[in-house]
Automatic annotation (TrEMBL):
Allosteric enzyme that catalyzes the rate-limiting step in glycogen catabolism, the phosphorolytic cleavage of glycogen to produce glucose-1-phosphate, and plays a central role in maintaining cellular and organismal glucose homeostasis. The gene is glgP. It catalyses: [(1->4)-alpha-D-glucosyl](n) + phosphate = [(1->4)-alpha-D-glucosyl](n-1) + alpha-D-glucose 1-phosphate. This is Alpha-1,4 glucan phosphorylase. The keyword Glycosyltransferase applies. Keywords: Carbohydrate metabolism, Glycosyltransferase, Pyridoxal phosphate, Transferase.
């Protein structure tokens, strides 16, 4: 049991400051105070961390190319139950915990939803008490820092590793491993006629592990996120490779080699839901996969787990296709190092691997050129080729048409389809919300679903409620505990008990007061950082997420333009408009031109609207720079309206929708992704729904019949705001306006912005009307909080544990193994 004593903590803290920096507390900067606190906490947990690494039960290894952790201090203190004692102790030392919290770097080792989900899952695996660990990459530069220059996004490298280290991590040089690229594969029979595979002339890269403790809530479980840094091998490792020796021949070559190795973990690809397709990305994928799988085998050997017993002792989860090479890498070790036959190796591999698909967007589907794979990872190529050969033979034996075989093949037309590899080689395939899973089964992966329906299942995403409610909205969390006790912290289904208070005016008023306080805090932040004054009495209407055309930030800002025109047209009439602050936060991938144009549009509209005295502050637009986890923790508790307005079918799940709901915002949404589950929880009377149904979108896509031009010509208001994009009405907007205009009109509005905008405007009007009735609004807010318990990632993780990881391979999968 990890305990804390204030007196001892203070002594420890002083001593650590002296050990680390040879200075007094008074001399220390906030960064130094943070480092010291971090080391003190690591000292306190070290015994339990060590203990948790021992295999008592099945261990889960979650492979993800992104872990968007966010700051760790507050959530670690919460999970350990140390916050109050440490706050007081520091206070007595003249130190403010909140200031230290703000000086922690925010590791942005992910783009958005997928990486953040992986971080929530780590928190939940530790909190429900399983041995569940992450493997990823220790990027030197995380997601870029966003700056606005002349209203446009400019990307600045994110140097989160100030002084090259991060205080939560522990580097373990004695556990470094070698990852091999390029070279030749030699196959020879030995004296006993066994096939011996050797990899010659490869380029060795060393994977150096850095461990971050993942602390469970209120238990002693401390798991590990192991992220790997790429380096040139130290001499011991280098001996094995002729390449490394040759590089020593010339200084120039040695430098080139150093660059080759270090480049691998240098930067996170800044693409969300988009396939990068570049050689370096493939190197990154193999890098952390190979290191991770080797590491698992090393642990298994240490704990004397036999290869046959692997499916009972470990589960490997492939988070989207980026870690798909886990499959051939595991096969490689079983075949080439453990000396098992193909059938034995396949039998074990398929029983260990499970896979989550996170998107149906075609542009996100990874396909690697066979030539690149063959050259960079020759042994991986050979194994994938063999898996494909056997699979395709099997399909042909079943009598399927060549068309169908073509669609299902792993390799086709010079490309390797990574999703197909995962589907064929895993015992479980899941989508991340009901509609998404349905689309996988019935549309995108239908061939595979018809073939092996028992592999498919849904696991609706979730969020770490400890971070997203308790830590980021303490006033609300305290109110909840005061009303229903603290059982909800461990089991969020208890939140439902809040419904008892739906007619209690005192509770509703308190809810409103808490929201107001959070809005004031956010308003202060915006004043300080954006120099925009916003009114906390206005509706805070928030859309924060990656900038992508399918997420339709464009529809939101076009609607703002409509409101602006309405105000100007009626300037003498003093329109009774409910004051609104439209808040945006979004990063665009640096190469995604349309998304960057939309950012510029939002910023230009913000300048126009905010500085026009005729608007009289009725509407304001704020685009908060550099949106990320730490900012989300400030913004979400302050929101009244949660904008979840993606084109139906396109957002696999979304997770900010869940965070907003849990913090009492009302959802304005299409029935897309997990908005469907929100609707199932609260009903249409407690949210604002609009827009095309999934069927309508699919029908338009299949059969056509949509013309944005027709809409544009037939709807005057629409024509007016679309024309604003190109007629100089919006100062500062240049060629970007034309780009957006073309996407909407010339290229027929792929994401149905103009088709849905009327209904969207109606829903917005309903919001304005309802906000006037504060009691009604607060009731709806309470109902949303009370029904948000299902969206805790503890629930999601328990489902993964029960239906996938601990259940293991289904009988049907066993019977059907190729
Ligand atoms: O499942 C987590 C999230 O993943 C994405 O961000 C992704 O694939 N990159 C999806 O776009 C989200 O809908 C989803 O919530």
């Amino acid at each position: 049991m990890i305990t804390i004593n204030k007196k001892r903590f203070k002594e420890h803290f002083r001593r650590k400051m002296n050990n680390l920096y040879a200075q007094t507390l008074e001399e220390a900067s906030n960064e130094e105070l943070f480092n010291v606190l971090c080391y003190v906490i690591k000292d306190m947990i070290s015994k339990d961390w060590e203990g948790s690494r021992i295999y008592q039960e099945k261990a889960v290894f979650y492979f993800s190319i992104e872990f968007l952790l966010g700051r760790q201090l507050k959530s670690n203190l919460l999970n350990l139950g140390f916050e109050d004692t440490i706050r007081q102790g520091l206070n007595e030392l003249g130190i403010d915990l909140d200031e230290i919290v703000e000086s922690e770097p925010d590791p942005a080792l992910g783009n958005g939803g997928l990486g953040r989900l992986a971080a929530c899952f780590l928190d939940s695996m530790a909190s429900v008490g399983i041995s569940g660990h992450g493997y990823g990459i220790r990027y030197k530069y995380g997601l870029f820092e966003q700056k606005f220059v002349n209203n446009s996004q400019v990307e600045v490298p994110d140097n989160w590793l100030i002084n090259s280290s991060y205080s939560w991590e522990t580097v373990r040089p004695n556990r470094a491993l070698l990852v091999k690229y390029e070279g030749k594969i030699n196959m020879e029979k030995d004296d006993e006629d066994n096939l011996k595979v050797t990899h010659k002339d490869y380029i060795p890269v060393m994977a150096m592990p850095y461990d971050i403790p993942i602390i469970g809530y209120g238990n002693e479980c401390i798991n590990t996120l192991r992220i790997w840094k790429s380096e040139i091998p130290t001499r011991d490792f280098g001996k094995s490779s002729s390449y490394a020796k040759n590089q020593a021949a010339s200084y120039e070559d040695a430098l080139k080699y150093k660059y080759y190795a270090e480049e691998i973990s240098q930067t996170l690809y800044p693409n969300d839901s988009n396939y990068a397709g570049q050689l370096l990305r493939l190197k990154q994928e193999y890098f952390f996969v190979s290191a991770g799988i080797q590491d698992i085998f090393r642990k298994c050997r240490r704990y004397k787990i036999t290869t046959q017993d692997l499916p009972n002792k470990i589960a490997i989860h492939i988070n989207d296709t980026h870690p798909a090479l886990c499959i051939p890498e595991m096969m490689r070790i079983l075949l080439d190092e453990e000396g098992l036959s193909w059938d034995e190796s396949w039998n074990i591999t398929i029983k260990v691997m499970s896979y989550t698909n996170h998107t149906i967007l075609c542009e996100a589907m990874e396909r690697w050129s066979e030539d690149i794979m063959k050259k960079l990872l020759p042994r991986m190529y050979m194994i994938i080729e063999e898996i494909n050969k056997r699979y395709v033979n099997d399909l042909r034996k079943k009598g399927y048409s060549e068309e169908k075989v073509k669609r299902m093949a792993i390799m086709y037309d010079g490309e390797i389809r990574m999703a197909n590899l995962c589907i064929v080689s895993s015992y479980s395939i899941n989508g991340v919300a009901q509609l998404h899973t349905k689309l996988l089964k019935e549309e995108v992966l239908n061939d595979f679903y018809e073939e092996e329906s028992y592999k498919f299942n849904n696991k609706t995403n979730g969020i770490a409620h400890r971070r997203w409610l308790i830590s980021s909205n303490p006033e609300l969390a305290n109110l909840i505990t005061k009303l229903i006790g603290n059982k909800w912290i461990k089991d969020t289904s208890h939140l439902k008990e809040l419904e008892k208070f739906v007619d209690d005016e005192n509770v509703l008023n308190r809810l409103e007061e808490i929201k107001f306080n959070n809005k004031v805090k956010l308003a202060n932040y915006i004043k300080e950082n954006n120099n925009i004054t916003i009114d906390p009495n206005s509706i805070f209407d928030v859309q924060v997420k990656r900038l992508h055309a399918y997420k339709r930030q464009l529809m939101n800002i076009l609607h703002v333009l409509c409101l602006y025109h309405e105000i100007l047209d009626n300037v003498d009439l003093e329109l009774d408009i409910q004051p609104r602050t439209f808040i945006f936060g979004a990063k665009a991938a640096p190469g995604y031109y349309l998304a960057k144009c939309i950012i510029k549009l939002i910023n230009c509209v913000a300048n126009l609207v905010n500085n026009d005295p005729r608007v009289k502050g009725k509407i304001k637009v704020v685009f908060i720079e550099n949106y990320g986890v730490s900012l989300a923790e400030k913004i979400i508790p302050a929101a009244n309206v949660s904008e979840q307005i993606s084109t139906t079918t396109k957002e696999a799940s979304g997770t900010s929708n869940m965070k907003f709901m849990m913090n009492g915002a009302l959802t304005l949404a299409t029935l897309d992704g997990a908005n469907v589950e929100i609707y199932q929880q609260v009903g249409k009377e407690n949210m604002f729904l609009f827009g095309l149904s999934a069927k309508q979108v699919l029908d338009y896509n299949k059969y056509g019949g949509y013309s944005s031009k027709d809409l544009y010509h037939s709807n005057k208001l629409l024509k007016r705001v679309v024309d604003d994009l190109v007629n100089g009405f919006i100062p500062g907007l240049g060629k970007e306006g034309r780009e957006i205009y073309d996407a909407l009109i010339t290229y027929n509005d792929e994401y149905f912005v103009l088709r849905d905008i009327d209904e969207y405007a109606d829903a917005q009007q309903r919001i304005s009307n309802l906000y006037k009735d504060k009691i009604k609004w607060n009731k709806m807010s309470l109902i949303n909080i009370a029904n948000s318990g299902i969206f805790s990632s503890d629930r999601t993780i328990n489902e993964y544990i029960e239906d996938i990881w601990f259940k293991g391979c289904d009988e049907d999968v066993q019977n059907n193994i190729i």
